[in-house]
Amino acid sequence: MSSNLPKVAWIGLGIMGSPMSENLVEAGYQVTGYTLEQDKIDRLVAAGGKGAASIADAVRDADVVITMVPASPQVEAIAYGPDGILENVRQGTLLIDMSSITPQTSVDLASSAKKKGVRVLDAPVSGGEAGAIEAVLSIMVGGEQTDFDAAKPLLDALGKTIVLCGPHGSGQTVKAANQLIVAVNIQACAEAVVFLEKSGVDLAAALDVLNGGLAGSTVLTRKKDNFLKRDFAPGFRIDLHHKDMGIVTDAARNVGAALPVGGVVAQLVASLRAQGDGGLDHSALLRSVERLSGSQV
Q1: Active-site residue, 175 included
Q2: Could you tell me the pTM of the whole model?
Q3: 159: which of 65, 95, 139, 262 fits an S-S bond (Cβ 3.0–4.6 Å)?
């Protein structure tokens, strides 16, 4: 293990955080992890990382702290307060928040951290569980150029497309746009699937040829098998996409951007969640189209 690499504390070891932290261990980083579930800490330890008993314990000696939690309230819970990150890290530490939260939460966190001498980047990701496992995530970053340059080697161990998009909050704004595009794309694919099936077409063949032309997309490549097998085990849960659609519709309203199709898809995501499908993968938008089309779900 190279001693000149920064020591990393990783807070949040969920569907995304676990494989991402393990990729850092594999790249030679010393990673100390903390999350609410002990079995997930044990998984990191088994992969060669270290476990911590608390946030304070995890971040105390870290050069870099990475957070990957579900939403703004969780980021605020782990960042602030006597047991939080900002009260327990050393001055000069770089905090990289990779959660998908509101742009304003990122701006506020950067402002609070600056008073403590802590540097911050918002660095949400796209690519889902598969992208996290394969270390090919797209990482959209907001913050200072110098901090981005310092973080870049570490981010290179997690993703393939890593771009500084502007000042604090910019990464979250681009992530919100990403989630808008993904949701609308999944919805269009889901409608096509129901249309094709009701027309009696060979679905697998149809999706193959569609994916080879202009209708092809990363969404269709990643989710084709989910549609074909009706396998909605979560790579990215409807609950989280519902949260993200709230972020993008709210942020768009604040800047005066109309999202006519995005607004409709946000409602379809909300209705799917209301019907008890919140824990399923976002490809389960197919179930919503099936219900609307009178198909058995």
Answers
A1: yes
A2: 0.94
A3: 139
